[in-house]
Task: structure prediction
Amino acid sequence: MKHVALGLRENWKQFTLLVIINAFVGGMVGLERSILPQIAEAEFSIAAKTAILSFIIVFGIVKALTNYFTGALANKVGRKNLLVIGWIIGIPVPFILMFAGSWNWIIAANVLLGVNQGLTWSSTVVMKIDLVGEKQRGFAMGLNEFAGYLSVAIVAFLTGWIAARYGLRPYPFYLGIVLSVAGLLGSWLLVKDTRHHVAAETATSNIPRLRHVFRETTWENNNLGAVTQAGLINNLNDGMAWGIFPILLASKGFTLEQVGVVTSVYPAVWGLGQLFTGKMADHFSKKNLLFTGMLMQGIALIFFLYAATMWHYIVLSVILGAGTAIVYPTFLATVAENTHPADRAGSLGVFRLWRDAGYAIGAILTGLIADTLGINAAVAVIGVLTISSALVILMRMKRTPRTVPEKIA
Result:
């Protein structure tokens, strides 16, 4: 077997490249974040919230299923191959969004986007964990998710800014052409597969194998099950924020540019915060971090019901983003910590299946509630569910020994 060394310092070139690639991945989601609901209403005359949120429902279902198959196939097909395939599938997305003549074409674009995100984001997550070894997983995931979600925020802001000045289409989606081409070329020409790193860690790991990866990750294992339900609820409230917040703000008289600012604050704090919270996951109790982060999100959502000014929404978006930043890298680090290297890709795939199914469940649930009881009722229900998820972590998850990380170069 080829000799390899695990660690961030030993693999910093490939790690940095994967961080950049994941920024391109996140940017592809940012294309839609602030303007697609407005396109539904302005260009396709779609008024029902459930219909508007259909693009998120499709995206969430497809991405969730792709996450699962990416995890299942990672050891057979290879991480790099799946990454490249994901980018090839993502190339048509901005073109469809620019020129779609009906809402069905927007849905089709989100099918491709879901596959693109499932393959590319899952591959970069697993490859970074492969590279750094067991002592710096939290920091590695913090950097990965920081790059992805900061890019979501930047592109969401830029598309809102461009749309306010030049129209909803086609100009905001030119960014997507640049992102998809750069992601494909970087992945194909520069990224190296990490199968040798997996083999090296497998030879020394003392973590027991999972007997039933799907069942144990979904619920049977106390730690994995607690993390998985929290991941689902986290993305459930993110799906609500993605689809409902722009409509809520527009209904209160905010301009398209203001909507772009507010909707970009939440993922910006989410992204930037993970530079710090990922490192925290290597030092502090993962259980405490997950409970605190989910509780912060739920409280922020409840207080959204009482917000009146743009600054109220910005402050609450900061709290919501901070809570999400605390849990997001901790989710992935906890799954990796509780699985054998040979099970890791599969278990992460199952976790990400349920986590990203939260997008679809959140969009369906909030759309139905918003159409029948109003937007405020939808926000309240999601807030209560998020607080309940925090309580599940508190009651079910077991503490794990604190890991002291290696010194980082």
